């Protein structure tokens, strides 16, 4: 497999060096049996410029610092998302108390949960915002980092988790509605999950498409 990839890259380099167009090179390789993804990956290693010889693009590398920053950023995002939903649930419980939970024990538990959610958001959200600022500044200085493998993997993981939350939320809402047990409390909690998960999904899918286009 490695030898095949080397042969492909070598062919692309020689074809571009001899003055063949990118379209003609791509067509020849596809006719020879290479997949479009393999061909575009090999051609994407060189800039589309009018220079006499192929100009290589910088290869994306992963450093320990980059991995640490992205892991910390997305971890902070998950903490913010979880405690936003938890805070929303607590506020629903406070303003729309359940008769079963209307006692001193549940009141004490609700108070502790509220304080824990507020404290977590007070720490995690500024950290997340600052890390996003650091990453954006780094990407502006080094545009090649837009296609960081760590960032892409964590972005797709976040999209998967957000989509899963939306699917489960819609399923639970429909189940309660079909059973005639849909209450205002449950509907508001479902709205909280949909708002947080939907916002994260829309933001990152738009961010991913924008970065792929710009890169």
Topology:
Blueprint lengths: L1 H16 L4 H10 L4 H8 L2 E2 L7 E2 L7 H32 L8 H38 L7 H30 L5 H31 L1
Antiparallel strand pairs: 1-2
Helix pairs in contact: 2-3, 4-5, 4-6, 4-7, 6-7
Short précis:
It contains 7 helices and 2 strands, in the order αααββαααα. The chain is mainly alpha-helical and 215 residues long. It has 2 domains: 2-56, no CATH class; 64-214, no CATH class.
What series of H and E elements makes up the topology?
A: HHHEEHHHH
Number of domains: 2
Flag low-confidence runs.
none
Beta-strand fraction estimate: under 5%
Tell me roughly what share of residues is in helical segments: over 70%
Biggest sheet architecture: 2 strands, antiparallel
What is the strand arrangement across the widest sheet? 1-2
Mean pLDDT: 85
Morphology? elongated
End-to-end C-alpha gap: 27 Å
Count the helices. How many? 7
- Quantity of strands, as a count: 2
* Class by alpha and beta content: mainly alpha
**Global Rg:** 25 Å
